[in-house]
Amino acid sequence: MFIQVVKSKIHRVRVTQAELNYIGSITIDESLMIASGLLEGERVQIVDVNNGERFETYVIKGEKDSGTICLNGPAARKVAVDDIIIIIGYGFMTPEEAQNFKPKLVFPDEQSNRIRTP
Fold first, then answer.
1. Could you tell me the pTM of the whole model?
2. CA distances in angstroms from 61 to 33, 34, 51, 104, 117, listed in the order given
3. Distance, CA of 5 to CA of 23 (rounded, Å)
4. What domains lie within the chain, and their CATH numbers?
5. Is 58 a catalytic residue?
């Protein structure tokens, strides 16, 4: 049996763009993708902290270190620019694998969407 668990999370980033007339997806700064382990084309859940919307889409790689978080296509209607969202990627694994699995969690600066440095 497989269970679905959180494998990646970008916690509380700011939406910088919403492009309705585009193929549906979310464009994410490549630096955030690398840090969280998200891959281009991967299915993700988006949770909008401002309005409570929850929906799924897929990842498109954005320019590295740009801070870009852009909802494209129909997903653009679910958010507003400057909303704070959480991006969650899930993986399937056995319960035994899940016991020791550690997800990649990223907590960027909400204003710049850049990875915080200690």
1. 0.95
2. 8, 10, 25, 18, 22
3. 28
4. 3-106 (2.40.40.20)
5. yes
58, with CB counted inside 10 A (0-12, 13-18, 19+), is middle
In the set 8, 31, 58, 66, the catalytic residue is 58
Of 25, 31, 36, 90, which one is the catalytic site residue?
A: 25
Residue pair 69/85 in contact (Cβ under 8 Å)? The answer is: yes
User: Residue 71 above 70 pLDDT?
Assistant: yes
The tokens 């494998």 sit on which residue? 7
pLDDT digits (tens, 9 = 90+) for 30-51: 999 999 999 999 999 999 999 9
